[in-house]
Write a structure and sequence with these properties.
single chain; flat; 5 helices
Length: 76
């Protein structure tokens, strides 16, 4: 019995989608999408995380928002 059933499945998906890296990357993409569309608490529930800090690790920093914050808050 193959202990890692994801290896052949991953190889098949890579033939279809060249940008596919692994299932961890896909999971992170989905959780990030949930945070943007559903909110942090709903994403926590959907991902099955017991602690909100685990879900917060998936919050993406938007470079444009960071630049705007620096321009607003920087004293010069």
């Amino acid at each position: 019995m193959n202990r890692n059933i994801f290896t052949p499945l991953s190889a098949q998906i890579k033939t279809i989608d060249k940008q596919f890296r692994n299932f961890t990357q896909k999971r992170a993409s989905v959780i990030t999408f949930w945070i943007k569309t559903q909110g942090l608490r709903k994403a926590q529930y959907l991902a099955g995380h017991s602690a909100i800090s685990t879900t917060e690790k998936y919050v993406a920093n938007n470079l444009d928002n960071l630049i705007d914050d620096i321009n607003k808050l920087h004293p010069f």
